[in-house]
Amino acid sequence: MGDYMGGNVIELELVKQYDEIVENTIKNRDKEKIAILLRKGKSVEEIVDLCEYPKDLVREVEQSLLVTQ
Length: 69
Hints:
By secondary structure, this protein is mainly α. It has one domain. The protein contains 3 helices and no strands. Helix 1 (2-39) packs across helix 3 (55-68) and helix 2 (44-51) crosses helix 3 (55-68).
């Protein structure tokens, strides 16, 4: 019984780690797409309106681009 319960705990932790990796991958992809649009001259409002990204995420990417310039 103990091995079975321990296996469930390990499996649950692996699922959590996998979900976190997927979430980070999607967020990084979104940030890359936002950066491309900003470099092409699209405004924060245009990106939010057309792509439905959260405004705070678009502003975060905008700030990171300003810092690296």
